[in-house]
Amino acid sequence: MNNVADLILEVLKAIIIMLIWGWILYILGYIVLWVFTLGRYPEGPKSLRQTNLVSSVGLLFVIVLWSGLAGYNNFVRPS
Prior knowledge:
Layout: H1 2-36, H2 48-75
Helix pairs in contact: 1-2
């Protein structure tokens, strides 16, 4: 019974990771790249390498945004 529960948890974990990496971060990275390249990239059918690149840009954007907000909240004190 324990093996079945572990298998179900691993499958759910894989689905959640693929959902976040392959969908949410891909869309965010696609928008960021599209804006910064003025609509030139990404184009055409997506390959696995392109998906990973665009998702990595999305993850980098989230990290930069999160760090910027943390820095802003840390250094700006309300009067």
